[in-house]
Amino acid sequence: MSFFPTWRENPIFTVLLSLVCFALILFLGVKTSVLDKPTPIEHTIFVEGVGKATMSPDIAVMTFGISSTSKSVSEAQKQNTALMNTLIEKIKAAGVVGADLQTKDYSAYEKLEWNPLTQKSESTGWVVSQALAVKIRDVQKISVIVEIAGQNGSTSISGPTFTVDDQSTYEATAREKALAEAKLKAETIARTLGLKIDRVVSYSEYKEDASGPIFYADMKEGMGGGGAPSAPSIQTGTQELRLHSTVTYLLSN
After folding, report:
1. Which GO biological process annotations does it have (predicted)?
2. pLDDT reading at 231 higher than 80
3. Do 157 and 79 fall into the same domain?
4. DSSP secondary structure letters along 152-219
């Protein structure tokens, strides 16, 4: 006994079943044809361009340190605080606002020396040190502020570290140059391969740190005193901003 009715028993059902089977065979044939068709390969290249822009620094950061030595830590702290407070007042009087001053590296330690007679380390006093970072927004005043620091107890001076407050304009210029260089490289490669640029697939960039001239002085006895002027001649110079752009291009025939 057959599960499906015969032609004589139900001719309509038999016709419909035949059509369904035919459609299924046709669908599987088309599907197999699509799967067998190879997927086209996308050709991409990535290139890097470097853009440069010359900047004129408009901010300088200097660091002034003061060290004080005394028999007791409290006395050393008292001396050090008085010297630093005076220095801060003088720097503010030169036009630097309080928001551009930052205390750094405060320390206090006992100074020990080896005594060969007693075969022991003995205290020779306490050393208290602290540093003040100063952001100078008028670079023409750098020399004046360095001189003020030397005349008011600074035992070490380092800097300046030059920077540009707003680098966006310089970055835009460097980016434009970097992209132009990257596109030129991509076009040359594509032309050599007999292809052409279709579109950009991805983009990334990074910026190199710009640095400028650095002045450093170590003055254990301070910078004050008569004779020649103590203010150094600080030159701001220029800084080169370098921006790297990496672009991935899709190529076409």
Report:
1. DNA damage response
2. no
3. yes
4. TT-SEEEEEEEE-S--HHHHHHHHHHHHHHHHHHHHHHHHHTT-EEEEEEEEEEEEPPP----EEEE-
Q: Which amino acid is at 83?
A: L
Residue with tokens 């499906």: 4
CA distance 6 to 26: 24
Tokens at residue 94, please?
Answer: 């030169």
* Residues 24 and 107 placed together within one structural domain of the fold: no
* pLDDT for the residue 234: 80
- 97 and 146 in a single domain? The answer is yes
Do 110 and 128 lie in one domain? The reply is yes
Q: Are 111 and 218 members of one domain?
A: yes
What mean pLDDT value characterizes the chain?
Answer: 84
| Phi (first) and psi of residue 25, to 5 degrees | -65, -40
- Report the candidate in 69, 67, 75, 153 with the shortest Cα–Cα distance to residue 110: 69
Dist CA 147 CA 229 (whole Å): 9
- The values of phi and psi at residue 171, to 5°, are -65, -40
